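USER:
I wish I could look at a protein chain and see how it folds. I am handing you a single protein, as its sequence and its fold in token form. As I understand it, each token names a local backbone shape. I hope you can help me see how the letters and the tokens relate. The protein I mean follows directly.
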Amino acid sequence: GWTYDYFGPPSPNDQFSAFKADSLIIKLRTIDNEKAGNIADGYTARRAQTLTSAEARVFLEGEWEKVNSVDSFVAAEVVDACYDPTLTGDITNGHCENGCPWVRWVAHSIHDVAAIAIGLDGSVKDDTTAIVGVASHPTKDSRLAVVFVQILMPDDAHHVDQDYLEDAFVGIWRDYNVFKSVYDKSELTGFAQRSRKRGVRLEEFSQHGPRVESDTGLRSLLDSRTLLHGGFAPLTQQIKNANAKRANSDDKDDRNKHVRIVKRRHDLKIDAAVTLGMAAQTYIERFGI
């Protein structure tokens, strides 16, 4: 995880070597906290019963170790292998009225596809806001294609402009063959209400069961080269930024095949990857592959 990147042992060409030289690492074990009377007697033993041996070493003993329930979402080579040079598109950069920067990629084939599913995952300032469109591949049977991506990149001085986001989203709905749009309501409840009043068919995408299914499905689509993209770097980099947290770390439990996209490091962005999975699942539920 990201804590290891910052605080783990130095490595060759370590970008955090200067930071590590100025840092003092103090290990606070759970059992020591229990002996000090700060938590209930027997807590450490009871907590260990719900953890794997590796998780216990990390969460109770303060050791540096890879926990099996978290691994790379997909290998970078897999993301690169899903690149389709026939999916060409135009890139546009701009700023919202309040100065928040954005970048957009639109496939040249976007008007040739019969139906598009749109996903939207938003934030105000801490993460990116992503709009991603998925459709059937225009020329390859049994394949899906990314046909639209727009990413807003807020910072402390320039938050996401909700008015711009609403106008951009409604414009996508009107300009392209969008049959359904889904969104994460965490930061977008007001946006969704206003967009519906303007005629957009917008449905909440639950971040519980359906989100796990879409994250797991996206991993399968990429591993099987079933979902192809046009090489738009702001999207592909966010996919590469993602780790996968397994629903269950027991290899004998079928639930370990279900994953949830998480950040590999706290400062990396993954919103476009999450949104891509939401859009892909929405399309497949309606049309299949």
User: Anything to note?
Assistant: The CA atoms of residues 77 and 158 lie 34 Å apart. The chain has a mean pLDDT of 89. DSSP finds eleven helices and eleven strands in the chain. The first helix runs from residue 2 to 7.
